[in-house]
Amino acid sequence: MTPFFLIYPSAIKVNMPNINKQRPRNLAQQLVADLSESIARGHIKPGDKLPTESAIMTQYGVSRTVVREAISRLQASGTVETRHGIGTFVLQAPNEGKFRIDPASVVTLEDIIAILELRISLEVESAGLAAKRRTKQQLKAMREALDALLKSQKQGKDAVFADFQFHSLIAQATANQYFSDILNHLGTTIIPRTRVNFAKVSNKNQQEYLERVNKEHEDIFESIARQDSDSARAAMRLHLTNSRERLRSLHPQGKSSTSD
């Protein structure tokens, strides 16, 4: 890919590629991929400040929601951090060999299913430990994340970050930083709804899809609230295996890109 970032002393100027023709559900994914590649190639270096939301909106011709979703995914993967009132900055690149999945590398349905299989092995035990070790404050934060997810859905807004936040809070509640570290390295790319092309799904089926996901989240939450480790593990396993099967049913060709 030809670099499209030109770095100036006081800011970074984006030489805008034309992504306007892509379907709306794919814009944030494309923006994440473009930014990630420029960072990986060193065109944007650690410590550099990204353009403002308004600048990216103008240069890419996308909405503020798309920009914020892309930035949220980069934050979750540990690529950038946002400093309140200052801006968003690129973080130091991870050491050679350190575990990290580049969001731009997760492209096909097979990639997503492979990550879901990894998540099953990781998050089933994470849920069990969280049920034993969670604090009242952590349980409250999980409830707030689920409420934010439902609110976003009702308003027709993107709920990816709230979805990821719920799973991240469960990992944090294990009191084992490695669960949280691995999940945060994976970032919001792991959330299957980011790869579901709702343009191909009827309104009724969209509603049924979201209702099933919400019910599964509630079952996980209730098990953790009761401090029932076995139920929490079972609820998380059911949620993630169902997520895998839902993806397969919505993308029956299997090997095609999930951005299709």
Structure description:
The chain has 260 residues and is mostly helical. The chain folds into two domains: 5-90, Arc Repressor Mutant, subunit A (Orthogonal Bundle); 106-250, GntR ligand-binding domain-like (Four Helix Bundle (Hemerythrin (Met), subunit A)). Helix content is 58%, strand content 5%. It has helices spanning 24-40, 53-60, 64-76, 109-133, 136-154, 160-172, 177-186, 203-225, 229-250, and strands at 5-7, 12-14, 80-83, 87-90. It has a two-stranded antiparallel sheet with strand order 1-2. The protein has a two-stranded antiparallel sheet with strand order 3-4. Helix 4 (109-133) packs antiparallel against helix 9 (229-250). It is globular, with a radius of gyration of 19 Å. Mean pLDDT is 77; it is low at 1-25, 197-202 and 254-260.
Index terms:
disordered N terminus; Arc Repressor Mutant, subunit A; two-stranded antiparallel ribbon; Four Helix Bundle (Hemerythrin (Met), subunit A); mainly alpha; 58% helix; 260 residues; 9 helices
Summarize the structure.
By secondary structure, the chain is mainly α. The protein is built from nine helices and four strands.
Topology readout:
Blueprint: E1 5-7, E2 12-14, H1 24-40, H2 53-60, H3 64-76, E3 80-83, E4 87-90, H4 109-133, H5 136-154, H6 160-172, H7 177-186, H8 203-225, H9 229-250
Antiparallel strand pairs: 1-2, 3-4
